[in-house]
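Sequence in, structure out. Go.
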Amino acid sequence: MQKILTAGRYFRDRFGCNVYKTPISILGFTCPNIDGTVAYGGCVFCENESFSPNLGVQKIKKKFSLSPRSSENPFLEAQLVQLESQYYQTKKKLAKKFGAQKFLVYFQSFTNTYAPFETLQALYEKALSFEDVVGLSIGTRTDSINTEVLAYLASKKDTKEIWVEYGIQSVYDETLEKINRGHSVANLIEYIKLTKSYGLKVCGHLIFGLPGETQEMMLESVKLAIDLGIDSIKIHPLYVVKKTALANDFYAQKFTPITEELYIDTLIKALQMIPQHIMVQRVSAGINDTTLLAPIWCKNKHEQMYKIRQALLQNGLVY
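Output:
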């Protein structure tokens, strides 16, 4: 049996204890394909509150959004308070439920480098100052990062665990256009290579079941991600939630979600391709509430994971 390098195994080997990521959602952050810089409306599958468990904690009353062009951020102090509150609340829960001892602050929702550098620096420095924090994981897009941010993050990597998480999703331009991604595959390749040149760890996110994609296309996305030198990967099925453009296509019968059987088969083939030194952080996703429209098999993540683990065991893999 071959053990897959999971996040738990990686971090226990690295730090000698249970290390967990604390997801953070900072109000005021958005994306360039939401605010009109490259597109409007965001990715077709994105209704951020369904992906952001902490969004809404200590809400800032006045609606505002940042971009790298923002001349000022009058709500920075409120964001710092929100960051601290979310971290310590989540830390307490993870310690009680899983015995977590150390933590990575995971800037999860929206695009977490899409703001003035001064704001980013203040948030990152604050996060690194928290008790029991061993590093950061920054969720972002390859069209929303620059050398100033990369150089800053690289300056921390010798003493802290620093990850940059990029939404790759697909390596086909036609797919990126269909999902309203707002950037090209060439941009993905350029900035993943640039990030690696700074000595930073890169996690690539891939979605199986995107509109029009075959199994061969999904596996080609995995192959290119590996070839680009990613250090970690997250894979999950595309599911449809309410209040999204994808939901409209689903209602109009223009989009058919991936079946559980095809997803698991594709996942097994992908994991068989991935070198043993690449950490696999995610192999499933789902949401167990009324916002989920389809596929219904994404509703019960525990059942989903059981089936995935059993299928992996039959193929000599332990997750």
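Check: Residues 49-53, 55-62 have pLDDT under 50 and may be disordered. The CA atoms of residues 132 and 194 lie 30 Å apart.
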